[in-house]
Amino acid sequence: MIMKLTDKAFIGRPYITDGDSYQEIRDTLERVPFTWAIQTHYVPATDTDGAFIVASCKAIDACIQVAYSYEHSRQGAHYVAAVALIKRECSDMWENLTVLGSVEQGSGYLFCFGEDGLNT
Questions:
Q1: Contacts of 113 (CB under 8 A, 6+ apart)
Q2: What gap in Å lies between CA 46 and CA 52, rounded to an integer?
Q3: Over the stretch 72-96, which tens digit does the pLDDT of each residue have?
Q4: First and final CA of the chain: distance in angstroms?
Q5: Which of 82, 107, 102, 117 is nearest to 17 (CA)?
């Protein structure tokens, strides 16, 4: 019984590769309504402001700016910003979301978040 539940959880998940363009990923995720693609990018420090990461999600038309977290790895700092956006915009359901995949793009990452499938 547990194995069938686990298999069912992964059936509807999209397969995203490093070679997929942003538009291909977006088109794929639009067919799976319970997923969100969050793009992050690094903004370097200036004379007056520290470095930060901007995370944005076009599907919900939202973005957030988070101070760069030096205690994390490079990808970890971007993940922190993506999760901050999800926690703010989906406060009622963010605990049921998981990272379905991530791809490095330019000065940031593209994270795909969705329901974990095991609690649905």
A1: 35, 36, 38, 82, 86, 97, 98, 99, 100
A2: 10
A3: 888 889 999 999 998 898 877 777 7
A4: 15
A5: 102
- CA distance linking residue 120 with residue 8, whole number of Å: 10
Rounded to two decimals, the pTM is: 0.67
Q: What are the residue ranges spanned by the domains of the chain?
A: 2-115
DSSP per-residue codes, 41-73: EEE---SSS--EEEEEETTTTEEEEEE--TTS-
Residues contacting 8, CB < 8 A, separation 6+: 117
Other Cβ atoms within 10 Å of 3 Cβ, number: 7
Is 51's pLDDT higher than 90?
Answer: yes
Task: Please state the rounded mean pLDDT for residues 12-26.
Answer: 72
Pair of tokens at residue 108: 């940031």
Q: At 54, is the pLDDT very low, low, confident or very high (cuts 50, 70, 90)?
A: very high
Question: Could you tell me the two tokens for 39?
Answer: 């793009």
Which of 67, 99, 73 is CA-nearest to residue 86? Answer: 99
